[in-house]
């Protein structure tokens, strides 16, 4: 049932308390399968992606443009600090990391600072 549902990172536990009726091998497979099917129907699947995290430091004058580019790429700003420069911590889908880094070089004309941060497994 789970393999046919095209889902990953899932756990399904079915517990059967013996109630005096012997189901046999086929009956157990049907009972467990139906329970798993109902659990999958009742669940709310979520799509999750591996993400990378970076800290970007840019001139304040580039902040608005960089914010727009981050939104366009679907990046999430997880922390920000403002002083004479702007420091943004960003999480982005791993498949978009190269595009993000290239775009940062373009927006900052190669003068911005970037640091890779430890990444959570998924989000």
Description:
This protein has 123 residues and is of the alpha+beta class. Helices cover 33% and strands 24% of the residues. The protein is built from three helices and four strands. It has a four-stranded antiparallel β-sheet. Helix 2 runs antiparallel to helix 3. The radius of gyration is 24 Å and the shape is rod-shaped.
Protein topology:
Blueprint: H1 24-42, E1 51-59, H2 63-73, E2 76-82, E3 85-93, H3 97-107, E4 113-117
Helix pairs in contact: 2-3
Quick recap:
With 123 residues, the chain is an alpha+beta fold.
Tag the structure with descriptive keywords.
4 strands; four-stranded antiparallel β-sheet; 33% helix; alpha+beta; rod-shaped; 123 residues; 24% strand
Element order: H for helix, E for strand: HEHEEHE
**Overall morphology:** rod-shaped
Q: Quickly give the structural class.
A: alpha+beta
Count of individual helical segments: 3
Q: State the helical fraction.
A: 25-40%
What characterizes the major β-sheet? 4 strands, antiparallel
Unreliable residue runs: none
Strands ordered across the widest β-sheet: 2-3-1-4
- Indicate the proportion of strand residues: 15-25%
Instruction: Give the number of DSSP strands.
Output: 4
N-to-C terminal Cα separation, in Å? 25 Å
């Amino acid at each position: 049932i789970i393999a046919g549902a095209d889902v990953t990172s899932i756990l399904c536990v079915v517990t059967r308390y013996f109630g005096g009726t012997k189901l046999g091998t086929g009956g157990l497979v049907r009972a467990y399968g139906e329970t798993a099917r109902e659990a999958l129907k009742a669940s709310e699947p979520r799509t999750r992606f591996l993400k990378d995290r970076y800290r970007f430091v840019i001139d304040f004058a580039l902040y608005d443009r960089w914010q727009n580019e981050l939104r366009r790429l679907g990046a999430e700003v997880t922390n920000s600090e403002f002083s004479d420069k702007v420091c943004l911590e960003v999480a982005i889908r791993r498949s978009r990391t190269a595009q993000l880094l290239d775009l940062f070089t373009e927006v900052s004309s190669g003068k911005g600072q970037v640091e890779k941060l430890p990444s959570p497994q998924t989000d």
